[in-house]
Structure formats: C-alpha cells, structure tokens
Amino acid sequence: MDNDQEVSGEASLLDPSKYLKLKPKKSILKQPSAEESKRIAEDRAHFDEMNIIATHHPADKDYGHMKIQEPKTPYHGYSDSEDDGDNHATRAPRRVSLVGAVDPVKLTKSIEAGTSIPPAYLEKNIPDDDSEIELTPEQIAHKCEFEKKRKMHYNEGAALLRAKELLAKNEENME
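^ that's the sequence the OP posted. Answer follows.
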C-alpha cells in the first residue's frame, strides 16, 4: 500500500497538471446554510407587481394630460411672383458710398507724420444721451465726481507699481 502511495505521489510530483483538475477540499468562500438562505430570502423586499399596476396604473385613471386644440400658425411663404410686380421696378439697388469716409489728403499727411487718423466718431460732435445740457448742476457735479473716482480706481494698479519702484529705489539707496 505504501508503494502505491509512493508511486502515485511520485507521479503526482512529476505531473502537476493533475493538481489543477482536483477540486479543493474546502472552499474559501463561505456557503450559506439552507436556514440562512431562507432567512435572507424572507428579509428581502417583495413586490407584488400586479398590485402595483392595479393601484398606480388603473385603466380608467386620467393622468391629467390635455390635448390642446389650436389652429396652426398661418405662414405665408416667399414666392418668386412677388418680385415680378411693380414694386421691384421702383426699388433702387442699394449702393454703398465711401465718399467722405477717408480724406486722401489727411491720410497722406498722417502717414508721412507717422500718426494714425483719429476715428471719425471723435471728429463729429454727436450729442450723447447723457448730454450735459439736460443735466442739472447737481447732476453735473455728481457726474464729475464719479468720473474722478473711476479714474482713481483704474489708476490704483499704476500707483501700486510706482510705490513698489519707489520702495526698491529706497532700499538701493539705503544699501
């Protein structure tokens, strides 16, 4: 008997593929017992689908959806026959005129001088909506004060840079 075991043991040592075919004696994962599986099944939620359908989706239930009957929006499509009328003959084609947009003499002078032409909107005196003529003296004073505060606010960054430069110069002078 020992010889049989030794022979089979030697054969198994020589052929490890036999070990792959064997099932383990005990599984690593715990298998639930029959009592536990019944208890787990009882603890789970059960849904009676027919009861849900009967209570929440009865055949005679109205879900509040309304069918709104509205007439369609009238749409008048474009047709070529509209252009063939008398209106087409009276309409002149649109033309763009660039006369006066750029003065060639001013342009040559500014190019020679190395400066650019100031924008046309700066040359024309178009009154703003906030015209000072319509404002009361109090409103004018308030507007001026606001503009000063705005300029101070936007110049704070430049002031900080100047302050840093002054501090750097003072430190260099101290050394």
